[in-house]
Amino acid sequence: MKLAVIGTGYVGLVSGVCFSELGNDVICVDKVEAKIEMLNQGEVPIYEPGLKQLIDKNRTQGRLRFTTDLTEAVQTSDIILIAVGTPSLASGQADLSYIEQAAKEIGNSLNGFKIIVTKSTVPVGTNEKIQNIISTHSLFPFEVASVPEFLREGTAVQDTLFPDRIIIGTSDECTKLRLIELHAPLTSNIFVTDIRSAEMIKYASNAFLATKISFINEIANICEKVGADVTEVATGMGHDKRIGTSFLKAGIGYGGSCFPKDTQALIQIAGQMDYDFKLLKSVVEVNRDQRFNMIRKLESVLGELAGKTIALWGLAFKPETDDVRDAPAFEIITSLLERGVNVKTYDPIATDNFIKSYNIANIKYCQDAREAAKDADALCILTEWGEFQKIAPSLIQSWLKQPYLIDGRNIYSEEELAETQLNYYSVGRPNMNKGVKEMSPILLM
Ligand code: NAD
What we know:
Blueprint: E1 2-6, H1 10-21, E2 25-29, H2 33-40, H3 51-60, E3 64-67, H4 70-75, E4 79-82, H5 97-109, E5 114-118, H6 126-137, E6 142-146, H7 156-161, E7 166-169, H8 173-183, E8 190-193, H9 195-226, H10 230-238, H11 259-272, H12 278-302, E9 309-313, H13 328-338, E10 342-346, H14 351-358, E11 363-365, H15 369-373, E12 378-381, H16 386-389, H17 393-399, E13 404-407, H18 414-418, E14 423-425
Parallel strand pairs: 1-2, 1-4, 2-3, 4-5, 5-6, 7-8, 9-10, 9-12, 10-11, 12-13, 13-14
Helix pairs in contact: 1-3, 5-6, 9-11, 9-12, 12-13
The structure holds nicotinamide-adenine-dinucleotide.
């Protein structure tokens, strides 16, 4: 099939590349010239494991092209996928300006019948808006369908090529058959529904996963008070098939470009219908507060933080991505700077993006994990990069000025800590400290 993908971000680029891998002719469009230039020179503007190899292969085989010319892309394709961003407005509502602009441009470019597929995460009713916008700019026939995206950054290529399920929202029989044909090579688990339900499935799924994370984080906080181990609790819970083990990893909470904005957007969607989504509001509040547990733990063990040097490992919101949108690191760093802390950070991939996105003065960005930890009063782990898990805690101890390790992602085991004199504080697990200083349970609120 001939496909155009509008927006070459994490979703559009990965989807376009994977559809070309399946043998389709794909043309990816972005309005940012620098991105398209990079892609046309064989460089990849985002970090996503396995993506570059697929881009190189499919470009060489002539199935994958990149352009800034939306009109040409639309006119030479049968199916147009919209994958532009839908960030949060200050109100928490989804900003639909990129969607509306893309719909207008598509409308102005139509030259015959097309299927327009919305992959971006959009509030219920948005596909109807897209339909209206396109029809005010074109007399050509078209169909709009919702096919929400569920890939996860860091494993986006795998998730796209081997999805758990595909959701297709359409009421048109021909569109349904074409979209089933397009997705059939990926999975047989294709669920077809109406457009509004498809739009809602995406928000409900993200809200549910965010709820699991906040739930286990609250259980972790209680475990710290009662002396239980949240990793054992989560494993025990997960043995129940109704619960499952995924998304029950305690830590410093979720971040990234989806869960924070999609939970806020769903609260707004409900609110506009006079429905107070109390549960989801609490999920968001718990998540935000969880980040600051790290600061409370630091204050509990180090006392006054002003003038201390704190090392932070990890700026990306999760491992295997360079995405720093709504990363817990930002709020943690801001809070430490407000307290007069000297902050040193290291991330294997995301440092450049972090500098570009947040432009925070007065922190030291280090070249490696050792440089960040060297002579610090404490080390905090914010992202569970594999690189950090391979560093022996005894080495960390030898680098630090004071033996405090605050692990926000529970990456080390008791055995790994046994040989060291590190005072180790993780999330929801019994503290492993060597008696240098006991953390007051009262402070672990
Ligand atoms: P992104 O910001 O990385 O990429 C969006 C791209 O669209 C940008 O490169 C931008 O320049 C381009 N763009 C915007 N308007 C355009 C236009 N008129 N013409 C051409 N290009 C245009 O966003 P993303 O992370 O890929 O997310 C896209 C959508 O998918 C969002 O709605 C998001 O919620 C959803 N989603 C994201 C993920 C994820 O993990 N990132 C997962 C599932 C769903």
